[in-house]
Each structure stands twice: as structure tokens, then as C-alpha cells.
Amino acid sequence: MVCVQYMILSPGIDRNENFAKLAGGYLFPEIGRRRNAYLEENPEMADRIISLGIGDTTMPIPPHILNGLVEGAKRLGTQEGYIGYGPEQGQAALREKIASVLYNDLIDPSEVYVSDGAKCDIMRVQQMFGPKVISAVQDPSYPVYVDTSVMMGQTGNQDPETMQYDNIVYMKCGPENGFFPDYANLPRADVVYLCSPNNPTGAAATKEQLTGIVKLCKERGSILVFDAAYAPFIRSKDVPKSIFEIEGAKDCAIEVNSFSKYAGFTGVRLGWTVVPAGLKYSDGSLVRDDFNRVMTTAFNGASCIVQAGGLACLDEEGQKEISELIDYYLENAKVLRDTFEELGYPVHGGVDAPYIFVELDGSSWDAFNMILEKAQVVTIPGAGFGPGGEGFLRLSAFAPRASILEACERLKVTMKKD
Ligand SMILES: *Cc1c(COP(=O)(O)O)cnc(C)c1O
């Protein structure tokens, strides 16, 4: 009898209409779906598949950093070392080290909010801003900015022709503008998302470019959300690693960041967000008070084990290990670059970033399918990152060297121009 009652009660909740607006699916699962569909039809190819698609790291966590994680876990098994809930904003020692080692004390430790990753923080930033803001995104861009804007209800529907959502400002980024948005000539947005070094284009913004957009955001009263998840990949001079290297940024910018892509922490989960102490809303209230509220209400602080790993990342030995991992991935990027350049394709990125962005002669999904079928290499079609990515292909350098070399040999055949 009780069962019958539950069955009657279960349906009848309307779906959140914002979720119904989301396109097909999140991009990376869609890539996986196509790869699996190909393998279902061609099971003999399973051993041949090389993934240069989703930007997931493949090299193991280096020993000193790993030891930080292990020791962090071990302390929990001792009476003296055991800790329960920690500060929701992160442990003081880690916030201090992030401020000093990664920002040369340009920011105060109290402005650092340690988290379980940059993607999660982007959603938290969105929850804080709410449904009424207008967001601007680079086109193409990392899909999370658009998808979280849609989930929050900031947008209208996606136009089936332009593939753009109503009420989002798309800032075209292509070779014509050095992959940097021309925000001055676009409608004003409340929140501007900017990623440098960029995923997917691999472009790293210069000091001059960032100075320009900070000035514009201040003039137009926009908050700049700067995604610096790839900052340590920057090896060129005069390319800022943080938006806070730019004068005036503390009046308009928030920075989201992550250990994922260079410490091998994609599965470990550790990131942080910097919210400047003086950053204010139009009514004079402090942005950081609201961000703190999100962190304390809906997050309870990053794992203490993982924060111990983060501390190990930031001491001298950890920094050295990270630098070596980045060297390895950047050398992969160079091999990929050289391959496509030799084939005669214009190649972007791959210098201060682990991604290369190849200019194709035709459609990006066609190239993706062709390369999967003929070379068994998984890439990502630029169009998956927004309409502005059509005609480009993103390749990730986060693979073992042997896979990169093998993939390049196959691509030299498959991608040969007539
Ligand atoms: C991978 C990636 C992230 C996600 O980082 P996590 O800390 O693993 O959540 C954020 N931003 C960009 C641009 C990324 O490519």
C-alpha cells in the first residue's frame, strides 16, 4: 500500500526550464560518446586510439608532491594530527603560500579562497551573481562560462542558426584580433569572462592587452572574471601570469585558478579564487562578503589531505617538479606545432599553453570525424567551444610523449594537403 502512495507522488515536478535550454550535452562527454560509438563499430581499433582531445593530464604526480598528499592523509590517523572541518576559505598556511609564492604578495592571503577546483568556482561565482546579470564570453571559449550562465537563467534560448544564446555577449576571438576580444566595440556586459593562457586557442594575452581590458571594465562597470588555470605554462616575457599584475585590476577583477593542469591534480581537486578586499557592487557592498557566504553555506572547504598536497606544490621542491612537468608538456606542444606547420596549416597557441589550435580548410566536426576514423586520434573540433571556433581543431599536449609522436606520424599522412 505504501508503495502505491510513493508511485503516485513521484512525478509532477517541472523541469528547471534553464536546463532544458542547454545544448546537446557538455562538450567533453559528447567527444567521448563519439569515440565510443566509433569503437563499437570498429572494436579492433581499441588499442590504436590516441587521445589528444579532452585536456586531461596523463603524467603521474611527482614524488615530493605525492608525499605531501600521503603525509596529509597519515596525519589524520594520529590523535595529534587529526583535524575535522577546516576553515571554509582554506587553511591559513596554504592561503599565505599562494599569496607569496604565486602572486609575489600582490594580493593578501585573506583575498584567497581555496576550493576544490576552478570549474566549481566558476559555478560559485555564477551563483553569487545570480540570474539577472549579462555575461560576456570569448568565442570560442571553455564551455563552462556559457553553460553555467544558461543554468543560472541568465540567457534566452540558443539560436539554431547562429548557435548563440540570447543575452550572452559573444566576444569573437580569431587570428584577425590575435585571439583577444575587442570588448570596446561590443555591447557592455556585467560580467566578462577571460581566460589566458586560453583554452582552447592557446593564446596568452600580453600586458598591453590585459591593461586595455582592465581599463575598459573599470570604465564600463563590468566585473572581469579572469581564468588563469594555465598560468604556470607561461614562459614568454611580458606575459602576465595573473590579472593582478595589471594596474587597477583589484578594482574590477576576480581570478579563478587551479592546481589541476600542472601538478597532476585533475582528479585530486584543488583550486582557488582571489576576490580583492575592496571589490564592490554598485550599492557599495563587498563582493567578497557574498563569495564568502557561498563558500561557507554551500562548500565546507577543500579536503585537508589535498591542501597538504597543495602546500607541497608550493615549496621549492614542488615548484621544481611542476616546472619539469610543464617543460614536458610544452615540448609535446612543440612537436604538435611543428607537425602541423610542416603540413602547411596555420597553427596558433602551444607556446605558453598546452593546446594548439589549428586552422583547417573546412568544417571542424568533419576534420574531427575524419581524423578519428583514419588516424584513430581523438581531437576536439573548434566548433565545440562556440560558433567562433568553427574551422579550427584543438589538440592537447597532455599525452605521453610516445603517444604524441605516434599521433604525429599518423597525422602527417591523414592531414596531408594535396
Ligand atoms: C581545466 C580547466 C579548468 C578546470 O579546472 P579544475 O580546477 O580542474 O576544475 C578551468 N578553466 C579552464 C580554462 C580549464 O581548461
Question: Could you explain the architecture of this structure?
Answer:
- This protein is of the alpha/beta class and 418 residues long.
- It folds into 2 domains: 24-61 and 318-414, Alpha-Beta Complex (Aspartate Aminotransferase, domain 1), CATH 3.90.1150; 63-315, Aspartate Aminotransferase, domain 2 (3-Layer(aba) Sandwich).
- Helices cover 40% and strands 13% of the residues.
- It contains 14 helices and 13 strands.
- The chain has helices at residues 2-9, 17-21, 27-41, 63-75, 92-102, 118-129, 144-152, 207-220, 260-263, 287-298, 304-314, 316-342, 364-375, 401-414, and strands at residues 50-51, 112-115, 135-139, 168-172, 191-195, 223-227, 253-258, 271-274, 347-349, 355-359, 377-378, 380-381, 392-396.
- The strands form 3 sheets. A 7-stranded mixed beta sheet has the order 2-8-7-6-5-3-4, sandwiched between helices.
- Strand 3 (135-139), helix 7 and strand 4 (168-172) form a beta-alpha-beta unit.
- Helix 4 packs antiparallel against helix 11 and helix 5 (92-102) packs parallel to helix 11.
- It is globular, with a radius of gyration of 22 Å.
- The chain starts with a helix and ends with a helix.
- The mean pLDDT is 95.
- The structure holds pyridoxal-5'-phosphate (PLP).
- InterPro entries: Aminotransferase_I/II_large (IPR004839), DapL/ALD1 (IPR019942), PyrdxlP-dep_Trfase (IPR015424), PyrdxlP-dep_Trfase_major (IPR015421), PyrdxlP-dep_Trfase_small (IPR015422).
- Its cofactor is pyridoxal 5'-phosphate.
- One of its GO terms (biological process) is systemic acquired resistance, salicylic acid mediated signaling pathway.
- Pfam families: Aminotran_1_2 (PF00155).
- Keywords: Aminotransferase, Pyridoxal phosphate, Transferase.
